[in-house]
Protein 1
Amino acid sequence: MPIPNTPFSWHRNKENLGIWHGRGKVAATGVGTSPTARRWDEKPETSMGALTLAAIRKAIDDAGIRPSDIDGIVLTPESTTGVTNDPNTPPPEGWDKVFKMVDYPQAGITRGDIDWVLLNMPELSNVQFKMYGTGCMSVAFTTTAEAIARGHTHTCLVVRGWHNLAGRYYVGQGAAALDTASGPFKYGAWGTPACSTAAFPFEEYCRKYGKTHDMMAAFVVEQRRNGLMNPDGFYSQHRPEMITVEDYLAGRWIAKPANIYDNDLPVQAALAVVMTTAERAKDHKPKPAYVLTHAQTRPETQGVTPSLESWERLSDKMGRMLYEGSGLQPEDLDFENMYDGFTLFHQFHLEGLRFASRGEKRGYALDLYQTDISIEGPNPVSPSGGNSGNGRTRWWNHRDSILQIQGRSPSQIKKPANNGVSGAHMPHFCDSLIWSSSPD
Amino acid sequence: MPKQSPIPDDFDRPFYDACNEDRLVIQFCAMCSRYQFPPRRACVNCTNVNLAWQQVSGRGRIQSRVVVYDTPTSTLIPDQPFNVATIALEEEPDVTMFSHLPGVPVDEVPIGAQVEVIFEATPATGQKVPEWRVVG
Amino acid sequence: MVFLISFDIDGTLEFGDPPGGITVEMVRRAKELGFLIGSCSDRFPSAQRAMWEAHNIEFDFVAAKHMLPDVRERFPADKYLHIGDRELDQQLAEQAGFEFLWDHEGVSEPWLDWLRTDGQ
């Protein structure tokens, strides 16, 4: 029987649903992060699949449990947003000497596969619940929270690997190199790079609220600072280079008003997290990071690209759903770790949550960036450093929220981290969770 | 600008055939009285699959813009940097299309200006696509 | 005669990511023969400086990739060359009045011929 995707009925994408039925009954404990690399060198032992297995082992070890304690796995199968192989591309020579194979030849290379993981980790002998949280690891997190709250699994792995093959990520590759366009590419034949999705609404935002792109510099510099504190991040491991305001302002435009440093760097990496019931979390080694609620928004875009109006409307809705489901208020959040890859996404999420708002509803985030948004300050913005500070994964933010609540983040905020939020990816297409040090 | 030529399929052929006749035809959902573009299998609002193709006025306003300096599309690299604007259709401003705004200097896009559709033949196959020019 | 060579880093130089075909030895030879050399890359200028220093190469300039016109203005020369691995490198070089070589074309060090032919 094929492994199912998250049922739509599990989504909390409406208002007036009340407090989440699983509030405080689910927690994250063990966290495992693989080493990172800029690109895959085509060796089996450095493949996305190998990194995934390494992350799983670390997460189980970190939780202080046995592999046989795991009874569920939720995995995000897509492992890139860029260049990938044809699904039928055979694996490289020597692959079958290192890994057991499933029918899908790209499993472990350019696609995550639960059966492949289980075949290559026979010690995960008690997995009964399997589900794909597709598209984004945020979906895997919210799916796992719901699965545990509903009693489908008790101790579950949340998993995502990212691959980055040799060569350039998008430019002049595949469909973009042709003089014809088919499928979904044909409506984007105007040559917009991916960051345009963020740049169009950002341009509208700046006009509406009288802001400028230069005001992003403070945020991007802080992201890199936070990322360089993380020993598991790509930049700290491979390019420990600090960006300056001058570097950012001199950045080459990709799609003005998005410059090269508003774009995140594709990398190879994997994350696994152990989530469990509040009861069982007491027996795990790390302090539990409880889930108080989760929520989803999905695109309602009628046109070729989202507008400012749709991003403001849907990120506002996300904020309202999270506060309703958790019973918290904006002032209860000690930090926010919303998505940043592209960096221009971030302020839309932040304002939807009314994070650090002094009564402002919209148009205040870029001003907030000019204040103390550091981990030492009163309003820690994105303490994970996000994709901008660590490389593209869409999960640094979730990982760090768990570690912050557990009090062991490498970029730990200085005030007590009692409640925080993480979510990805776009302001109109997002899965978010509120994390807490207390189940109550 | 030498755009890639879109290859119509059975699903979106009504849109592309209309372009070749210099008409702008997009999907309309009678259940919720909404237009949408690009073509999709169902209404993004109510998931109705019985969508009609309707001709629209071909008038709109410039909603936003970017200036592309690093396109992934090989055929457009020689023309960098170039404008790309989003055009909000007069019938329903939530429905947007892209435009290179032929004739508008780079970085001088008049946000909010009225535009009207024109149809541009793409080099590889001759398939026409909608483009937009500033009115007045 | 003064000749200036700008190297892209990633995909062009052997210590780029991905590595390119232009070796440290080729760059060092050009410098020793009197070429003005430096990098125009998407790496931060501070990171570019650190990379040259790590390979013990004296450099004349570092700049962001789109700042080739600025390099041309700062360094009067008889001939300007940029070596890179992307169509964008080629476009930016040509717009700035630089000759352009793909990274693989640079492997044979064609700039050394300029010394014999006065850049012809």
Protein 2
Amino acid sequence: MTTPPIDNLEAESRSLWADAWRELKRKRLAMFCLWVVLIYTGLAAYGEAVYRWHQAHDRTPAYQVPDLEKQYLPPSLFREMEPAREGESRVRQVARHLGTHPLGTDGLGRDVFGRVVQGTRIAFLVGIITSMIAIPIGVILGCLAGYFGGRVDDFIVWLYSTFAAIPGLLFILAIAMVVGKGLTGVYLGIGLTTWVGLCRLVRGEVMKHKARSYVQAAQALGLGHFRIIFRHILPNIFHIVIVTFTLRFPSAVNTEVIMSFLGIGVQGEPSWGIMIGNARLRLWQGVWWEMTFATLAIFGLVLAFNLLGDALRDALDPRLKEQA
Amino acid sequence: MERLLTGSNIRRRLPLSALSAVLLPLLLGACGHGPLLDQAADDEMVFYGPTPRIRGFDPVKAGDVASAHAISRMYEGLLQYAYLERPYRVEPMLAEAMPEVSEDGLTYTFRIRRGIYYQDDPCFVETGGKGRELRAEDFVYSIKRVADLKNASSGYWAFNDRIVGLDEFREASAGSEPTDYDLPVEGLHAPDDYTLVLQLKRPFPQLLWILTMHYAYAVPREAVEYYDGKQGRPLFINHPVGTGPYILNSWRRNYRVEYVRNPKWAETGRVELYPTVGEPGDEERGLLEMAGMPLPFIDRIVQLVVQDDSTAWLMFLTGQFNSSGISRDNFDAVVTQAHTLDPTLVEREITLAREPTLTIFYFGFNMDDPVVGQNKKLRQALTSALNTEEWVRFHNNRITRPAGPIPPGIAGYSEKESPFPFDLDRARELLAEAGYPNGIDPETGRRLQLTIDLGSAESAEVRQSVELFTSFMDRIGVVIVPTYNNWPAFLEKLERRQMQIFRLGWVADYPDAENFLQLFYGPNGSPGPNHSNYRNPEFDALYEEARVMHDSPERTALYLAMAEIVMEDCPWIFDAQPLSYSLTHSWVRNFKAHDFPYGMIKHYYIDNDIRRAWQARFAR
């Protein structure tokens, strides 16, 4: 009987991710969603760059400058073309027409397209930063509860049950009210309330792993608890974190939109929620574009993330693979 | 009534949800087409209308418009506004004549009309439920009630530090034992049943305006003591007993209120007449056709609390309500660019009244702030940077931009343009002179950044108006960062003087420039009404001189001088004077918009023939 060579083992462990990637690539819909998410990410990065540039140069970005002459312009496709400039070819004229305010303008004459793109930036900021708050809390508490059990477990279970018992949106609003309106309130509000689900998952998973032989071996070797938890167990359950991230990202964006719509979210920057809130006023007079495009932007992002999250879960779940 | 407003209150309404606008016709359709209101008997004159929630009918407690309206139908004061006359003038109501004022302006002697009776009510035990005659002592009692700390009256500001001994009475009412209303107040006494004497600490000519307000209405002591909420008796706040033209017939809180003509008037032969004098033009508008006829005309007033604006609007369009305001969302559909009524409404014989209101909205600078407070040029620059035309356009032409602190319609208003009208070049120049060339703050090397505080951000309209304001300032290179507070937090910051710029409005309590100019008087600084904490010894001296003067050309000259000082110093950016738009159906006659319309409904007249003809034509 020969022991398998060490490097072989490593190749095996790496292949979980490689497997998952192969699995994912096979699904056309999942790949499409991945591309959509990447495009959104690109837009968010672009939006952030635009924002930073204007901050650094101390200027006011174009998407913030009202122009009452251009109030409520419909999207290019739905409005009459401006007359051609002198010496302008037909093609150029059409291109210019399509390029100026392609999605119309809002009540202050600001470009809806520019604001939708900037809204992506806020959405991503919220998705990422709230994850950076919620995921560490969920993972750490889940690991501690699952690994130590006993009183620690009792306490943590009590804590998350309490959190889970409070209606989510109310809790978020309360936190945002305490911290103050604005992005900080949104981050903390969402971040501090959405770790419960992940914590539960991680706790169960860690309990399972605790009984496994590799953990017992590590314990027998006298390794410290925290080393066992974070160096040995955590990498084995990390796929849960990734799946949770993709699934909670869109729900965080949704929550932000609701908060901004209610007027306690983002202030002074274009967010999809604010756009929808503003657009509501004139919707019944036929000004549909601001509401429509902000809603479509959310819809696309949420759908893509959810489908991708589902696909990732399938790809990363070893049990499903065994069945296959 | 003192009211501080946020921008959101420019329209006193909730934002209309687009969805409800779409769904409501469907919902109403689903509920059948029957009118929600009963139909008037043939010759009965009934006024139907919407009302905001009424909190109660106690004159000392009401601080809101709806309750004040309700109260003014059932209670009356010594004086009232002459309905048709402009500029506004007070005339006697329960007083026999205007008061005799002593030489030094400190003692006011009123003769009370004889033969004025309260409505019949079980609280008048001595007379077996018959309403007793009004006595001068009732006014003494009523004003004491405003001063009573236990009543937590919203109207004490009107008498605060003005009547000799009243403040001491207020202090005495602070204890836990019931307030002793027999405690005499030196400056407030009734030598006999028909004489009332008021003694002031210092001359206060505006007292006459104050006495038209519901805080000074006559309340019978019997009713207050009888309706104590015990043994099945309702509380006084829910059971009005007054002398007015109407009595409360039924009230279902937050749903429906109905008033009927006070039978006591006919029983005791009390006669009030429709005015015979109006302002020029009233004759042509048919407002004097009923001159000298006995009031009130309308037999019954029915009002519904309608929470949703579009429902109220539909009820008006179908003729169920007699009058309506115009919400901002409806505005484009109702009023054309030329400020005339939309043709479809003209066809329905609806009339539009457009009047400036005695209200000023402003961006206030905190003069205690080291940046904006110490730098007059900076404030002038920001004032010049507000693009009047765009601002008015954004507000759908529902506002005009005032030049100074005194709105048109009251003495002291000047046609003169603001010394700092919209002018970008001038604004930039002033900004450079202020030490911020191109808006650059030399200390940081970046654009100057100022914070504006707002009372609420719930409505998209407020948010957008702030964004527009921000962009105006941005054009001269000043960055404005908005902070949206909730209302209590906003007030607290205001009182602690923690703001840099804030937006507020002021609704005149009475039509006298003094009411606006007090907002700049140094000793009135926060938590007083001078929230800018503006201090200017020259202004204060003029104010102290003018406030004790009766209406005269000299006083108007002082008002003008004070306004000029304020316009030069720019503690506020005067941004909006709202116009009120009201719509009435053709069958409502004698309607004239008034800044203080309380109790005016007794002048209205409903033409049932026109109403029936209209309904046959337009209502299904």
